[in-house]
């Protein structure tokens, strides 16, 4: 059954109709690298990954890998990659890149809420970048993703996560209005949570993204049993850390990059 006639009740947990259509469109995967070819937003987070994922031969799981923009550079440094995505077209491109350069990358089509195929404690590192966690609808489903991260990490393993800051909408055109509307809708509609956004993206209607407060993000991470080592507040360009984060940083940050660790077993 293709993406356009599968009934809503048969969609995977946490996956919206817009996301389901997005991951099944070949042209989005085929044009993904070209679409972001001149975008420097990724340079900062890629450097953070390289600074923390340093053990040669270690396994790193990329949750929502896309075309492997963050995973391929790590594989070139000698890490073993596990590319996880719901999109077969995206994974096809990752596989082509791996074969072209003989990179140690294994691809797995998987919904992040349902990662039972992955063994406990099987990876040294994990990452979920480009606000992929925000594409998972439902607070309980997002917590399940975080619980899965804890489970698949080895004790002492690192997890790096990027999400968008809800309050940065204060600076966007129409953002303050959206914040008020979203707050009201969350009170009257049990299907809407504070931070839920819908929009059109690259020709796909009704794309979904959840944007986070710092408190909500901390609760998700610690609720899974992970420890926060560092939380980087991003400036408006996302190409560097926010200057003077202590000065209303939770209102000024574009988003957060969080370095987390699964505690060592005692």
Automatic annotation (TrEMBL):
InterPro entries: Methyltransf_25, SAM-dependent_MTases_sf. It holds the Pfam family Methyltransf_25. SUPFAM superfamilies: S-adenosyl-L-methionine-dependent methyltransferases. GO terms for biological process: methylation. Residues 60-157 form the Methyltransferase domain. The keyword Transferase applies. Keywords: Methyltransferase, Transferase. Its EC number is 2.1.1.163. One of its GO terms (molecular function) is demethylmenaquinone methyltransferase activity. CDD domains: AdoMet_MTases. It is an enzyme of class 2 (transferase). This is Demethylmenaquinone methyltransferase. It comes from Lignipirellula cremea.
